[in-house]
Amino acid sequence: MSRAYAKTILFGEHAVVYGEPGIAIPIKSMHTDIELTDSKNIEYETNWELDSSSKKKLEELFSFLGINDKSIKIKSNIPISSGLGSSASLSVSLIRKVHPLWTKDRVNELAYKCEEIFHGTPSGIDNSVITYEKPVYYENGIIEIIQVKPFKILLIDSGVRSSTKDVVLQVRKSYESNVEKYQKILSQIGYISKKAREELSYGNIKMIGFLMIRNHELLRELGVSCDELDDIVKLSLEAGAYGAKMVGGGKGGYAIALVDETNHKKVEDKLRKFSDNIIGVDVN
Ligand code: PMV
Fold it and tell me: What digits encode the pLDDT tens for the residues 152-177?
């Protein structure tokens, strides 16, 4: 069996696609497990509910990886289209299974190409954090493993699903219609990631929270949030979270709230009215 984790982006989604820095962490309680056995032709089973276009992409991925005479079992507790890196997790897990002796660098290179099948023009942050299984600071193809002081987040499901590829395309259209306006937003997000890297190394939770709130506002200006994600952010802050923001492609999927031992119960209780899918994650 091979396994690869999920991830969440703490800072910088969308801006990373334009060469700005972003920060992501692995989520080890969520993973994609793969089993391969010999078979006459290719067959697969998965617990994901896939539409016909996702099935096509999956088959394209198997063929791209040269898997054509295997029976593939995919078991994952990462929800799809939620901003938690399900596609990168699947790719890394499959590559690990097929090439168990490969270095992480080599796995990551191929996983990036697999991400192109799913997302068109991926930044590379998802496959990197999932391959290296450590917090990463990612800028223009350069991956730095970073040290962070321990902290706690809640992952909150908005219940809405959306395609990262479509949202990335929507941002591209907006960007091309008004480069000056959108470049300014993306550069500000990049600046936030730079500051956040420092604050994460000191464990300055108030400042990290403040940067998350500002990052969410900028993602709203970029047009990638939605009412449900905005409500989660608002409710989290009302209940005392240090910060909150949407994560990943947006227009649905998950949001995160920055909490600690003193307030996580209160934030969770308030959010339970909104979402029954809330996961606590200790990052260290
Ligand atoms: O929705 P996810 O988990 O695939 O995250 C996408 C992150 C983006 O910055 C929007 C795209 C990218 O390739 O970095």
Answer: 999 999 999 998 889 999 999 999 99
Q: Would the CB of 83 count as within 6 Å of ligand 1? A: yes
User: How close are the terminal C-alpha atoms of the chain, in Å?
Assistant: 26
Taking the C-alpha atoms of residue 199 and residue 151, their distance in angstroms, rounded to an integer, is: 12
Q: Give which of 163, 167, 154, 171 is closest to 255, Cα–Cα.
A: 154
Pocket mutation for ligand 1, best pick of 126, 143, 160, 165 (most atoms within 8 Å of C-beta):
126
In this prediction, residue 40 carries a pLDDT of 86
Q: From the candidates 126, 231, 269, 276, which is the catalytic residue? A: 126
Active-site residue, 126 included:
yes
Q: In what order do the strands lie in the sheet with 278-283?
A: 243-246, 254-259, 151-157, 278-283
pLDDT over 90 at 47, yes or no: yes
Instruction: Work out the average pLDDT over 219-230.
Output: 98
Q: Which atom of ligand 1 is nearest to the CA of 15?
A: 9
